[in-house]
Structure formats: structure tokens, C-alpha cells
Amino acid sequence: MLTSKTYLPDSLEEFSNQEVWDTVDVPNAFMVRADVIKQHKISFCNFFGIMYEESDLAYRIRKAGYTIQVVRDAKIYHDVKDYMPHFMNDEWRLYVFARNRIIFHSLYSSKLQLVSILLVWIWIFALYYSYKILAYSGAGSFSPAKRIHLVIQYFKGNIDGLLFVIRNEKLSYS
């Protein structure tokens, strides 16, 4: 949480003898028992749209007293080999990726973590993704003007996320 970067373990070797283990959250492709959703009226927050909506739901499920678990032999298919085409073809996804990162961390990070993210890490990520967008050479053909527009969208997302925090806005989970 200190940097807001999602890390994947180098190896799942430590879990190789376990069929199920607890985790903090699952950022993609997970299942929730229907009784948890009905009893606690927990559902996705429409504000997030895409990006961080699943992590937000998982944190709220944990807050309701449930655990989040990984089931070793579960089969879930989520085919994303290269995330950049999603961003290059959809400026909204790029905008909410930046905005929602800040909002998610304003909800679930400690004050120290949030200060670190707001003062340092979102700007490092802004530079990183700006470079990735401007230097992208994958699928599609994107003019320099389109690339600059996408970078601006990412920065707008950061600014709107910061404004959300500064204004002390609240999300509606109804």
C-alpha cells in the first residue's frame, strides 16, 4: 500500500501444499458467496466503473467480517497479455485508472501511506505511464496528437482523484 503498486509473487511455492489460503484482496476475477452480498447489501460501487472496483468490493467484504481466500485449484480465465492496448484504445480507462488509484487509497491506506502516494508515487506513475503511452509500439496506430491526448487524460484522472481527496468527498454505495 505504501507505493500503490500491485505486486505478483515471484513464486507460489510457499502455498504449494495448501489448497486454500487467505489474502488481502483479489484485484481481478473472483467470486463472492451470494449470502454475503444479500446479508450485507454489498455490491460494486458504480462510481469506480472499471479499475479498483474489485479491490474496493473485497475490502468492504473484509470489513464485514469475512475473509478473502485463494483456492489453488480454481480455474478462472482472464486473458490480458499486454495491458497497454486497453489504455491506448480507451481514454476513459486511462483516466479512471489514475483517478481510482487515488480514491481507493484515500479510502483504505493509512495516513502515512496516503501522503506517500499523493506526494511521490502518483507522480512517478504519471511519468512512467506517460513514457509507456508516448513510446508504445504495440497493436494499433496512434498519432502523436492522440498519444498526447491520452497522457493528458491520465493527468486529468490524477487531478480529479486529488480533488476528491482534498474536497473530502464520499462514495455512495447504494
> Regions with pLDDT < 50 over 5+ consecutive residues?
none
Number of helices: 6
The dominant shape is: globular
Q: Oligomeric form of this entry?
A: single chain
Number of domains: 2
Radius of gyration: 18 Å
Question: Percent helix among the residues?
Answer: 40-55%
Query: What is the residue-averaged pLDDT?
Result: 84
Instruction: Give the strand content.
Output: under 5%
The SS-based structural class is mainly alpha
Query: Could you describe the largest sheet, including whether it forms a barrel?
Result: 2 strands, antiparallel
Let me know the number of strands: 2
H-E string? EHHEHHHH
How is the largest sheet built, in terms of strand order? 1-2
Distance between the termini: 27 Å
Structure write-up:
The chain is mainly α and 174 residues long. The chain has two domains: 13-71, no CATH class; 84-166, no CATH class. Helix content is 51%, strand content 5%. The chain has six helices and two strands, in the order E-H-H-E-H-H-H-H. It has helices at 34-40, 53-63, 84-89, 91-108, 111-134, 144-166; strands at 20-23, 68-71. A two-stranded antiparallel sheet has the order 1-2. Helix 4 runs antiparallel to helix 5.
What's the structural blueprint in terms of helices and strands?
Layout lengths: L19 E4 L10 H7 L12 H11 L4 E4 L12 H6 L1 H18 L2 H24 L9 H23 L8
Antiparallel strand pairs: 1-2
Helix pairs in contact: 4-5, 4-6, 5-6
Main features:
174 residues; mainly alpha; 2 strands; globular
Can you summarize this structure?
Helix content is 51%, strand content 5%.
